Amino acid sequence: MGLFGGLVLGVGIMMGAYWAYETLNFGGYWNWDPVENAVYIPWLVLIAGLHTMVVYKRSKHALRTSFILVITTFLLVLYATFLTRSGILGNASVHSFTDLGLSGQLFAYLAAFVILSILLLVRHWKAIPATEKELTTYNSEFWVFIGVVVLCLGAFQVLVTTSIPVYNSFLGFIGIKSNMALPADQIAHYTKFQLWMGVGIALLSGLAQLLWYQKNDKTKVVNALSVPLILTFLFVSLVYMLGKIDFIPKVDTFPYFVLLFVTVFAIFANLSMVFTLIRRKVNLSGGAISHIGIALMLFGMLFSSGYSNIISKNTSGLLYSRDFPDDINRDNVLLFRNDKVKMGAYDVSYRGRYFEVKGFPEYVNKQLLFQLDDVHQAIARADIKYKDKVHFKTGDTVDVYPENTYYQIEFKNRETGKAFTLYPGHR
Questions:
Q1: Looking at the DSSP assignment, which residues form a beta bridge with residue 346?
Q2: Which of residues 247, 272, 307 is at a domain's end?
Q3: Which tens digit of pLDDT belongs to each residue from 327-375?
Q4: How many domains does the chain have?
Q5: Domain span at residue 124?
Q6: Are residue 349 and residue 404 in the same domain, yes or no?
Q7: What does the sequence similarity comment in the record state about its family (predicted)?
Q8: pLDDT tens across 130-168, in order?
């Protein structure tokens, strides 16, 4: 069941990343939104727990650690539910629910399971088998433990930052004013730490897999490491010599180079184990294959950054606002109504602002409406028609939903002449 839970949670994360990349199209697959983080944290801890279970099955180590990690995973899932549904992230996440008045019940539900879990674990602690046998650095279990620590530290770092709104709420509840805020640039903040977690995981996924079947033999360990290391040096050197990674913006910086190196090492190390295990017993190669998948995912994340091509650079010399971050002013072109701006292969034109009007099947051009003091009402400046049918006559008062405001933008390919509009269609 643990494997199935890890699979379902992992697939859910991948589906969310795909949705963000393909549907939202905000320029990436992970934005470090608090709700995204809320599901990422228990997945990391669960993966750590699965590894300690494998260690226990082989060497009878770490059963107590496995209990702690599995229970923590369950509690973190409940905590994620609390974060998402309580409304506590209302101002911090685009995915969070508003306050539905359930925060008290959700907190009581979470607290009850935390207390119950601790009591049950304490009660049965002595009944859980433990071993006093010490591990050496040539034990593969030792390196698996190091990997578990890296995963848990990565989860802890995300948890600490993601929970900032919870700290504010709790301190406010006990009468202490707190204005702690999430980092202004959350992507840079989390990447600064999680990049090194990726380095650790890539390195250890290759190292532990090589050591797993070497029976603590120093000579065999050295021999097993030598081929993947040589191949890694050759591959990375060749890539640099051929200049094939110029499109990775940050690979020349030390952290990104290290990530590239250990990711390639993880791929070669696990591939070598797959070839070795296929000759012995094919069903033993599952761990190495899954580690190759993780390494390829890290490799893809590193290289995908080079495919970003910002075609909306602001070359007008004008700023949106001096209060905006430099990247917002730099990477987003200013559009003025009916002016044509070149953007990549397209001519882009802003056609105006449109409102949703109650009882009308299309969005209505703001130019046809005179806004009243009540922002939810407006007067029609002219007849408002849809397919030759007049829905509102000049002077009629209409109900509008200003929160549903759309900006019609036309893109026209300069070569083909084909055009499309970023504007909601018929409802």
A1: 343, 413
A2: 307
A3: 777 878 888 888 888 888 889 998 888 988 998 988 888 889 998 988 8
A4: 2
A5: 2-307
A6: yes
A7: Belongs to the CcmF/CycK/Ccl1/NrfE/CcsA family.
A8: 877 777 666 778 888 999 999 999 999 999 999 988 888
Within-domain flag for 378: yes
* Together in a domain, 164 and 95: yes
Residues 404 and 282 placed together within one structural domain of the fold:
no
Q: Identify whether residues 401 and 290 lie together within a single domain.
A: no
pLDDT classification of 382: cutoffs 50, 70, 90: very high
Q: How confident is the model at residue 426 (pLDDT cuts 50, 70, 90)?
A: very low
pTM metric for this prediction: 0.74
